[in-house]
Amino acid sequence: MTAIRTPDTLVLGATGLIGRHLTAELLRSGRSVAAATRGGPREEALLSWLRDRGLPTGRLTTVRVDATRPGLALGADDARTLESVRDVHNCAAVYRFGMGRQEARTANVDSALHVLDWAAGLPGLRRVVHVTGYRAGAPTTADTDRLYREHGAYEASKIEADTAVRDLAEREGLPLTVVNPATVIGDSVTGESGQYIGLAETIRDLWFGRLPLAPGGPATFVPVVTADHLARFLAAVPEHDTGGVRAHWVLDESTPNLRELLHGLARHLGVRPPRGSVPVGLLRRLPRAVTRTEPETLTFLSDDRYDTASANALAAAAGLAHPPVWTSLTRWADRLVSEGFGALPDGVPGGLRPVAGTRTYLTGDQVSPSYVLLHGLPLDGESWRPVANLLDSPVLVPDLPGLGRSGPSPVPDAVWFEELLGSVVSRPVLVGHSAGCAPLVRYAHARPERVGGLVLVAPAFLQGRSLRPEHTRPLVRAALPRLSAERLRRMAGVDEGRDDLDRAVASAVLDLRRPGVAARVARTLSEGRRASSRTELRALLASCPVPVTVVAGEHDPVEAVDPRHRVIRVPGAGHHPQLVDPRTVAEAVAGAGAGRTAVG
């Protein structure tokens, strides 16, 4: 236990999505909070998450709790610490499909009753707030076997717990509020959620081109609520609810029906929308190998609407309003993409923005960057992160059109890049790797007054050709979708155990699983090997009107470099010096930017 100050509020499930945001909201509003955890890495992660947001953890106490046991398995010291608690928020539950019935009941029913039993003994108890779900709370069958058979273990356990805690509270005269939130999506400002099941899985399938048909009919409604709005609502409940048992359905009624939601997100993400729909009844009869869907999730596909009157009244009394739903949904979708739907290590989040008719994935400063970094192949913008972390000025890192996480472009790369920099007020150094060097050389010739310098890392057009373009393209196109992270590391010539490269490698491998990306990588490689393209770019470089620095790996030499250009060779590196030795490359980039000035 870490006790700092006598707490007035206990949050169970504080390390989960809802509990984490609720703890932050309570601390932000001046409350003294006890966060119930099981200790270990998740507790450390919670404390780190709160500190990263500048929250006053001096008013936070952590206690070890096991809600599946009577009395919450509290130690004597923790029990004394919690005697001052007035409000108990139970956000603890196991949110997972495919559980067995007993596992689900222990985690979600028994634990809920244990929390209520324990809270009844608090001398100053004001209110218990129990969080369940929007599909719970409605009248349902009293046949428990049928309940679990029809709904699956997760949802059935939540429904059973909802009824059980209400019955216990009414019998004992306990002040209880049951909050039934809709599907909880990311923070309305940052998009962050850290949860990747349910609706997030459907968006993942949309992103990877695995959702040809939308589930459900035209009226299917899967409502959402943002994590931060729900946290504010939960924090307000004890201040506004009085008396015995209360219940609120918390959801944004302006959430589009599921079909419209998926089509709107497809437009935002720049991917193909579902071309039709499939009724839920048919989905239930199809084998899981065909639907690739956890059967339990199908119970959430319903045309039902929900009574939100009491929640709306409480929110109005507390001065709360849902953030704009489409903005929240698109920010959440962007964050899911930047996190690889849970498959990528932590990194700098980005988002998709329209650039010259292309949904372009961008991270960094879009107004006054000191450096603009274009990736090579088959990588994406994450490959620049080891270098960007060493630079002390803002960077802008896009994924090239049709590559990485950006959508295909209807215009040439030169037009796309011109618009990308159209709103930039600085005079950045342009940095490219391999195939990413070509657009920069062309732009420097067209707009030298807007360029602070060029840094070309292993420029493809200054290297020899090992295969003819017509031979290269089909081989590459066939191999790329099956490329593993281990194989990509070997291709890049980087050692195992480099944690700073895990995200760059994993992100590139994920990109190549997306429809059309491998084919576009192969086409770009093939076009870059053509003699006409190489001759044009070499000529432009020879007469380049801005300062040029060429960075090349020791084992990947370049040829025909103009003697006026600065050349830096990276010992031990091959074609990816920015991954092998990011410090040397960062020093070259910073050196090229030393004389940079703002655009007048």
In short:
The chain is of the alpha/beta class. The protein is built from 23 helices and 19 strands.
CATH topology of the largest domain: Rossmann fold
Question: In one word, what is the shape?
Answer: elongated
**What oligomerization state is this entry in?**
single chain
Strand content: 5-15%
| CATH class assignment of the largest domain | Alpha Beta
Average residue pLDDT: 90
> End-to-end distance, in Å?
58 Å
Largest sheet features: 8 strands, mixed
The CATH architecture term of the largest domain is 3-Layer(aba) Sandwich
Helix content: 25-40%
Radius of gyration: 28 Å
Q: Provide a count of the helices.
A: 23
Low-confidence stretches: 467-471
Strand order of the largest sheet: 12-13-15-14-16-17-18-19
SSE class: alpha/beta
Tag the structure with descriptive keywords:
19 strands; Rossmann fold; 23 helices; 7-stranded parallel sheet; elongated; 600 residues; alpha/beta; 8-stranded mixed sheet; 2 domains
